[in-house]
Amino acid sequence: MTVQKFTGPLDWDDLRVFLELARAGSLSAAARSLRLSHATVGRRLAALETTLGRSLMERRPDGYVLTQEGESVRALAEAMDERAQAIRRCEGDAAGLTGSVRLTMTQGLADIFLIPRLGPLRAANPSLDLEILVDNRTLSLARREADLAIRLARPQRGDLVGRRLATLGYGLYAAPDAPDTLIAYDESMAELPEALWLDRHGGGRRVAFRSNSVQGQLAAAVAGFGIAFLPCMLADGVPGLERRPLPGPPLTREAWLLVHRDRREVPRVRAVIEHLVAVFTAGKERLAGGAVAQ
């Protein structure tokens, strides 16, 4: 795509819209976040490309992708955005940090463990907006789809900084009168360590219920479908469930907090990181569930 350069002033609003589109990856998501129409977002992008005389994004069937020039402009726009946020913080220190932080993680950790423990963070920073995404997709920190991620695996490569938050224990749970059948993951999640453990130690039992949702498996166990292999922090203490002995070695997984190198010192991101570390440290025994000692 060839864009004719226009000699005119650079409009910060055009950059702001471009930056949100780069983060969101789609016109509709950026429009929702900015509370603008699709047409306005598209028009702002076109105006910025005309001003700079270069193509910043390619439109593909699955969304917008940055060109090489777009990556360079995004990096500069991110820096400008952080400075703008710093100016806003100087104006409103009494209200605490401002802006938004996007965190992606598993649904069980979010709904059962983390979200109920976010009250102190909110009380200390009432102007800080937090977005938690529990989509099954692995969102990219490098593409700014999220600021932080909690994942059940250590990062192997890339410009990510990782910190181990906790060890998660797993156990077998069933209703007292449940049949000797299994509750398991569906085929889309067959490679998960917990799914592989259940295949290896399930003793050839019939699978009476499958789901790609851990919460769905928990509900099926309460309903009496059979025995489920669940995170201890999710199933311990649930009325109508009892913990069964493990037929094999215990399984544990590690929860890691990941952040891109160039985001870890952003004040609002740092505040969320510190709160997450404190919450997971305080809850480490519940998260482990005694599975390590079995």
Give a topology summary.
Layout: H1 12-24, H2 27-34, H3 38-52, E1 57-60, E2 63-66, H4 68-91, E3 99-104, H5 107-114, H6 119-124, E4 128-133, E5 148-151, E6 160-174, E7 182-184, H7 193-201, E8 207-210, H8 214-222, E9 227-231, H9 232-235, E10 242-244, E11 252-260, H10 267-282, H11 284-288
Parallel strand pairs: 3-4, 3-5, 7-8, 7-9
Antiparallel strand pairs: 1-2, 5-11, 6-9, 6-10, 6-11
Overview of this protein structure:
Belongs to the LysR transcriptional regulatory family. This protein is α/β, with parallel strands linked by helices and 294 residues long. The protein has two domains: 12-91, Winged helix-like DNA-binding domain superfamily/Winged helix DNA-binding domain (Arc Repressor Mutant, subunit A); 101-293, D-Maltodextrin-Binding Protein, domain 2, CATH 3.40.190. The protein contains eleven helices and eleven strands. It has helices at residues 12-24, 27-34, 38-52, 68-91, 107-114, 119-124, 193-201, 214-222, 232-235, 267-282, 284-288; strands at 57-60, 63-66, 99-104, 128-133, 148-151, 160-174, 182-184, 207-210, 227-231, 242-244, 252-260. Strands 3, 4, 5, 6, 7, 8, 9, 10 and 11 form a nine-stranded mixed beta sheet that branches. Strands 1-2 form a two-stranded antiparallel sheet. Helix 1 packs across helix 3. The termini are far apart.
Specify the CATH architecture of the largest domain. 3-Layer(aba) Sandwich
Q: Whole-number average pLDDT?
A: 84
The portion of residues assigned to helices is 25-40%
User: Would you report the number of β strands?
Assistant: 11
Protein name: DNA-binding transcriptional regulator, LysR family
Family: Belongs to the LysR transcriptional regulatory family.
GO molecular function, one term: DNA-binding transcription factor activity
Organism: Azospirillum oryzae
